[in-house]
Specification:
Shape: globular
Strand content: 35-45%
Order of helices and strands: HEEHEE
Low-confidence stretches: none
Number of domains: 1
Largest sheet: 4 strands, antiparallel
Mean pLDDT: 81
CATH superfamily: Histidine kinase-like ATPase, C-terminal domain
CATH architecture: 2-Layer Sandwich
CATH topology: Heat Shock Protein 90
Strand order of the largest sheet: 1-2-4-3
Structural class: alpha+beta
Distance between the termini: 19 Å
Helix content: 10-25%
C-alpha cells in the first residue's frame, strides 16, 4: 500500500519504527500508520509529486470515508476509514 513507504519516507527518520494497524468494525475498515517522525502539513501532502512519490495520502483523500493526521511531540499518526461493500 503506498501510504506505508510514503509515510516512512516523508515523516520518519531513517531509524524510526513505522507501525501499521488495522481492524474491521461493523461496516468499516479502520487503519492507522504512525512513526516517530517530526510530522508534516497534511494540506500540502495530498498531491502526488513529479518523482512518482506522494501517492499514499492522495489515494487516502479520495478513497477514505474519513481520515486525519495527529501530531504529538515525538510522533505522527495518519488514520483512515474505508467503508465495506
Amino acid at each position: 500500500m503506498p501510504i506505508t513507504p510514503n509515510h516512512s519516507t516523508m515523516t520518519g527518520p531513517k531509524n524510526a519504527t513505522t507501525r501499521v494497524s488495522g481492524n474491521v468494525e461493523g461496516g468499516r475498515l479502520a487503519f492507522e500508520v504512525s512513526d516517530e517522525g517530526p510530522g508534516f502539513d497534511p494540506e500540502n501532502a495530498v498531491s502526488p509529486g513529479t518523482d512518482g512519490s506522494g501517492w499514499g495520502l492522495f489515494l487516502v483523500e479520495r478513497l477514505a470515508h474519513r481520515w486525519g493526521v495527529s501530531q504529538h511531540e515525538h510522533a505522527t499518526r495518519v488514520w483512515f476509514e474505508l467503508r465495506r461493500g
